[in-house]
Amino acid sequence: MKRTKGRVTMLCVSLAGVLALTACGGQAGEGQNSQTSSSESAKTKTIYIYQNKIEIDKALKKTAEAYTALHPDIQFSIESVSDNFSTGLKTKLASGELPDVFTVLGNQDLKLWQSQLEDLTDQPWTKDMIPLAKEGITGDDGKVYGLPVSVEGYGYVYNKKLFQQAGISKVPVTLTELKQDVESLKSAGIQPLVGAYMDWYQSGNFLVNMGIARQKDPLAFIKGLYDGTATFVGNEIFKEVADFIQYDFANGKNGLSTNFNNQTTQLVNGEIAMTLGGNWLQPTIDNGNASLEAGLMPLPVNDNPEENDKLYAGVSGYWAINKDSDVKEEVKDFFNWLVTTPEGQTHMTKDMQIIPGFSSFSADNKAIGDLGADLSRYLKEGKVYGSYNSYYPDGVAQAFGEAVQRFVAGQVDKDGFLQELQNEWDRLAE
Amino acid sequence: MGDKNLNKKKKYNMLWGNFLFLGPSTLVFLAVVVIPFAISIIYSFSNWNGISNEIKFVGLNNFNNIFSGKAKFLDAFWFTLRITAVSVLLINLLGILLAVALTARLPLRNPFRAAFYLPQTMGGLILGFIWQFIFIAGFPAIGDKLNLGFFSQQWLGTEKTAFAALVIVNVWQNAGYVMVIMIAALSGISSELIESAKVDGSRPLNTFLRIKLPLCIPYITVSLFWTISSALKMFETNVSLTKGGPYGSTTSMALNIYNDAFANNKYGLATAEALVFFVIILAITSVQLYMSKRKESQIL
User: Fold this and answer.
1) How far apart are CA A298 and CA A281, in angstroms?
2) Which backbone phi and psi does A128 adopt, to 5 degrees?
3) What is the phi/psi pair of residue B13, to 5°?
4) Which of A113, A200, A428 sits opposite B264 (nearest CB)?
5) ipTM value of the model?
6) Cβ–Cβ gap B156/A198 under 8 Å
7) What residues of chain A, 68 to 97, have a C-beta less than 8 Å from chain B?
């Protein structure tokens, strides 16, 4: 009898233990519930935004505050992450905390996330999206899934004062002119170029994109790569781009041990005349050395001025809505306010300093700075190539970047480099 | 007969006791280790991308890709083996040397011990970034000032020097830990033994090699085990110092798995690689433990 009693006590204790464990689990859940219920009782709703443009974080928070002032029942929680953005997003998905709004890069990334996204085709602003912005976020089903955040473009960022010092009066638009300018910079004792070849990011995304964007029909070329009817190997345009990459590397300094920070520091300190970059560098320049006069110029790969007097541009990301979000209608209202009312538009162009992907309003030339103004001018004149990274199979940009590194390090020759691009594409596309 | 019965009941009671004390932790262990492990085995036979709701099973395809060299895992494996061999050797040698030096009666012995152990207390990610700065900006600055070509080369820009850079950081980070273990080992040896060796005319080097080192064997086993398994699992230093570059030549197994899972969105392949990774580490460390235990029982 006594023994039975002991056994019962033990059972009770172990049950209590289990209960304590489950209670812990329950508490976490309750905590969340109470949060939502308390916010419901006060009739406020919180929109959770997770986005990858760290440079607009402050401005976006300011915009959100302005919106909350107009709509006191809407609160925002904004998280901006640039490195490992997509890893973070996947982790959030896995833990069942997918944000209400998050950045989707378009095309391949859209395919990846499409099953989680709200269809936004019926929103009033979709008709105002510029074609460049619209094609990236339209699914195979013809529906639009996101709001383009900003148009970004790249070329060489150049230092106007150093150009003057070397006696260069106008930016080069052909390869021969570029080579002459590099020589005059050198003879003036100025380091002409520097490339951040240590990171795969710029080579894999920007340099290889040149070859794809310059094809007659880039989308057909990409489709051909997927179904095996097109190839990098022996492609004349890619050969020219490969020569250009080699030239850029050879006239740079310590490319393979220069990373993005290093490159930016040299640019901002006025130590180099040109480097690969885009209008996103403007805030860094403004903060680091406001007296630096910079401009954006083309990356000429041959001697045809019409083909070369162009920049490369694309939409850097889209804000998409989680289709299971409780506040998706509120987010739609917020998006509407942001891109269709003058107040919202001002926040986008003046505070976030972006070039909008809409035809209904345009960038603020003062806010976007010299680099943005140059890009904006090229965009208006229609002198831009597209940016096709978001069409690649996942992981290809990194593999391309590593192929470029191997090429400039002299591990493979030009043909080997193109073969490698092809191999990496085939490996990751399947 | 009665006695036997009593024994049985005692055993039965013990079972309840075991359940009471081990139950909760077993549950937790099941939930966070065993079940995820089982699930990952299932994923390793699929082509899941980590997000979509559709999962297609592809049989042994992922393992095929791994062992045929198509998935770059073998390259990463070869690199990891090389860097493990070099850094384990150097970490243990340096750790033992430091321990010997710092058990001698030196002035400022304790500050030195602390200084050598300090890197161990910093996170690998931060170390990587600091050293990246040193290799990119610090070394060339020294090289330019002193006109030493050795310093001004592109440390992270070529395959060999990037490998060396990783070894340097690894050794610098981990030698202190081995040093602490070995200091404990050396100061645990009874002074009578050493004295009698001295009386018998043994020279210091001889005493060290023939008496001290053999007595430290159990500690060396631990150090070896720890350095080997941590070198095989190298990740943070790798990701922050070289990011696998130049051209992917310094990609460790763990970084390769991370890339496949999160950059290439090949979750199925990555879990398959993780399984292979697990088996490799298990095999290598078991062999090492078996061999050092055998050595221990031979000597002690």
Assistant:
1) 16
2) -90, -5
3) -65, -40
4) A428
5) 0.77
6) yes
7) 84, 86-87, 90, 93
What residue ranges define each of the domains in chain A, with the CATH number in brackets?
45-150+316-361 (3.40.190.10), 152-314+384-429 (3.40.190.10)
Q: Do A87 and B262 touch (CB under 8 A)?
A: yes
Q: Write the CB contacts of A127 (distance below 8 Å, at least 6 apart in sequence).
A: none
Q: What's the pLDDT tens digit per position in A123-156?
A: 999 999 988 888 889 988 999 999 999 999 999 9
Is A115 close to B266, i.e. CB distance below 8 A? no
pLDDT at B52: 76
Q: Which residue type is seen at B263?
A: A
How far, in Å, CA of B270 to CA of B50, rounded? Answer: 10
Does residue A421 belong to the interface with chain B, where contact is any CB pair within 8 Å?
no
**Chain A CA closest to residue B154:** A257
For A272-284, how does the pLDDT look when each residue is reduced to its tens digit (9 = 90+)?
999 999 998 988 8
Give A162's Cβ-side CA count (13 Å radius): 28
Q: What domains, with CATH codes, occur in chain B? A: 69-299 (1.10.3720.10)
Tokens of B86: 């070099």
Q: CA-to-CA distance for A316 and A54, rounded, in angstroms?
A: 12
pLDDT band of residue A18 (cuts 50, 70, 90) is very low
Interface residue ranges in chain B relative to chain A, Cβ cutoff 8 Å: 9, 13, 16-17, 19-20, 23-24, 27-28, 49-53, 70, 132, 135-137, 140, 154-158, 243, 245-248, 259-260, 262-266
- What is the least distance, in Å, from the CA of B143 to any CA of chain A? 14
* Average pLDDT per block of 10 residues along chain B, 300 residues long: 65 81 90 93 90 84 89 92 96 95 88 92 87 90 87 87 94 94 92 89 88 90 93 92 88 94 89 94 92 85
The label of the residue with tokens 């056994």 reads A7
Tell which of B28, B51, B62, B257 to mutate to test the A interface (max A CBs under 10 Å).
Answer: B51
Q: How many residues does chain B have?
A: 300
**The one-letter amino acid at A337:** W
Q: Which one of A11, A112, A409 has the shortest CB-CB distance to B51?
A: A112
Separation of alpha carbons A107 and B246, rounded Å: 29
Long-range (24+ apart) CB contacts under 8 A made by B213-218 are: B214/B299, B214/B300, B215/B185, B215/B189, B215/B300, B216/B182, B216/B185, B216/B186, B216/B189, B217/B292, B217/B295, B217/B296, B217/B299, B217/B300, B218/B185, B218/B296, B218/B300
Residue with tokens 């107009």: A70
For A376-421, the pLDDT digits (tens) are 899 888 899 999 988 898 889 999 999 999 999 999 999 999 999 9
b/e A364-392 (16+ beta carbons within 10 angstroms → b) = beebbbbbbbbbbebbeeeebbbbbbbbb
Contact criterion met (CB below 8 Å) for A318 and A152: no
- Contact map slice: A 102-121 vs B, CB within 8 A: 112-113, 115-116
Q: What residue has token string 């505050």?
A: A65
Task: Establish if A300 touches chain B: CB-CB under 8 angstroms.
Answer: no
Q: What is the DSSP letter of A393?
A: P
* Confidence class for position A43, pLDDT limits 50, 70, 90: confident
Residues of chain A in contact with residue B68, where contact means CB-CB under 8 angstroms, are none
Nearest CA in chain B to A90: B51
**B247: nearest CB among A84, A115, A405:** A405
Q: Do A14 and B263 touch (CB under 8 A)?
A: no
CA nearest to A274, candidates A248, A250, A254: A248
Long-range contacts of B19-26 (CB under 8 A, 24+ apart): B19/A14, B20/A10, B20/A13, B20/A14, B20/A17, B23/A14, B23/A17, B23/A18, B24/A17, B24/A18, B24/A21
| Centroid of chain to Cα A430 | 24
Contact A200 B245 (CB under 8 A): yes
